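Bug #77: duplicate submission created two jobs. Keeping one. Sequence:
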Amino acid sequence: MTLKIINEVHLTIFTPVELLDFIFRLGVIFAIYGFLWGIFELVFKIVSGTRQRSQMESYVIRGIKYILLALVTFVFCYQKDVNDSMNSTTQLILGGIVLLTYFIGKLQNQQNKNQMQRVMGMMMPNQGISHAFNNKAEILIIAIAMGVFGMLILFPNYAYNDISKWFVASILDIENTAIIGFIFKVIGFFFLLNLLSKFMQGISFILGRNQLNKNTNNRNSQSDDQFDDYEEIN
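Kept job's structure:
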């Protein structure tokens, strides 16, 4: 099993429909995983009572959440459970890209939430509004989770344990349930739209930046030409 990915280095050619289906399926998996993790969060809050979490405790729990999600994503992609028409290598590369995009989206949401909390804090300073946010810690846990995903590509045997098997089996059971499974498929559809929107925004940003650089270079060139003409007149 360890040599499977190394031997299977070629990438299968996939159609846009297969790519969309792959992203959609991962969206469903992420949504169900979030639901299961939410149950653990609820139980933890009940057990801990009204005690407020420290910032370090919050990031440790979120780090575990991200690492387990990377683990579950790897297992689904490695077993080719996301899309039967793609080999493991293709699914792992696409899965890593989708997972990283998902984490970056979470980071952006936390940044926006933190900004709103700051604005509310300035508007209502006596309300004690606060939000535990550390940008470096957010980036660190994402880097660790993606590092684990990359490490599992070299050592896939470590992805198979009781925790990952339970999550994979639970996700498949919930997905195959009639009503609940349909609800999560709807969530997966919106996940697909959101991810495509992020990709389009990224492409637009890159193209817009290139156009801005071209316009700046053109203006600088025109200014140099005008300066040269002035020198010739004098």
